[in-house]
Design a protein that fits this description.
C8orf32 fold, 2 domains, Serine Threonine Protein Phosphatase 5, Tetratricopeptide repeat, two-stranded parallel ribbon, about 270 residues, 6 strands, four-stranded antiparallel beta sheet, alpha+beta
């Protein structure tokens, strides 16, 4: 449905290789999109060095509450990592190398680093793809927010996050705390970047993000729709029509079906001029 992109092919080959960790896959994403000169091994080593002080500070006690307390103290106060509240939507906050260097980021990138450091002290934390705000859990009763210095959250806090993101129309359900798989984490980061690039009119990189996502979730109606919209903005009209037709096949009852039909008519009119 579009031209072959060697960068996407290189990334998906890397992602599908089981020998690479989530951290390495995130760094590969950064390399493919904006940082061709970074060395993935260098940043993996930086995390190793960052974790050494934590490992040295922890006693033989394996109590999870104690270990979480030491992790929070080390990551947020000794190292100085923090949530980027001043420039939250800057696309660079999605790149792990940038977040490691500047020690600030958004929930998803801070959570990846938080889990990685936890692993070094034998603390098995799990990523949680909570709507609009990535979180971490030790158990169903111990939900942590690395964006807010590892704060322990209760049900009221979780509902508050939903209310602030969705205007009070979504009720908390326990499934929102399910563990999220590594490939879905990568999809979520790529979606963040797709939206940022689209808003800044960088349609070429937005298209690359869409293609990266579609390699992992090939029948995603949302991504096929966005691909068609991007193709129309890049004046790839024939490809755009194919993508948008496929979207309507996959999601005939979509809320934006009328908008997409209007876009298809507009593209056909321009093609016939």
């Amino acid at each position: 449905m579009s031209e072959f992109d060697p960068f996407v092919a290189e990334w998906i080959s890397f992602v599908k290789n089981p020998r690479y960790t989530l951290v390495e896959r995130c760094l590969k994403l950064a390399q493919v999109l904006e940082f061709p000169d970074i060395k993935i091994s260098d940043y993996a080593q930086k995390l190793n060095l960052l974790s050494q002080g934590l490992c040295d500070s922890v006693s033989d006690i394996k109590n999870p509450t104690y270990l979480i307390s030491k992790l929070n103290e080390y990551m947020f106060y000794t190292l100085g990592f923090e949530g980027d509240t001043d420039d939250y939507y800057n696309p660079r906050n999605n790149f792990l190398n940038v977040v490691i260097d500047k020690k600030s980021g958004i929930p998803i990138t801070l959570s990846i680093i938080y889990i990685e450091l936890a692993n070094r002290i034998g603390l098995d934390l799990r990523p949680v793809g909570f709507p609009a705000h990535f979180l971490v859990k030790y158990s169903e009763e111990m939900i942590l927010d690395p964006f807010n210095k590892g704060r322990l959250l209760d049900i009221e806090d979780l509902q508050e996050i939903l209310d602030s993101s969705y205007g009070g129309v979504i009720e908390f359900v326990p499934d929102y705390l399910n563990e999220i798989e590594p490939e879905k984490i990568l999809v979520r980061i790529a979606r963040n970047l797709k939206n940022s690039y689209t808003q800044s009119f960088n349609y070429t990189l937005a298209m690359r993000c869409v293609d990266m996502i579609l390699e992992l979730v090939p029948d995603s109606p949302e991504e096929i729709r966005d691909k068609g919209i991007l193709q129309s903005r890049l004046f790839q009209n024939d490809l755009a029509l194919r993508s948008l037709d496929k979207y309507l096949e996959l999601a005939p009852e979509a809320n934006d079906a009328d908008f997409i039909l209007d876009l298809i008519r507009s593209i056909k009119e321009k093609s016939n001029q």
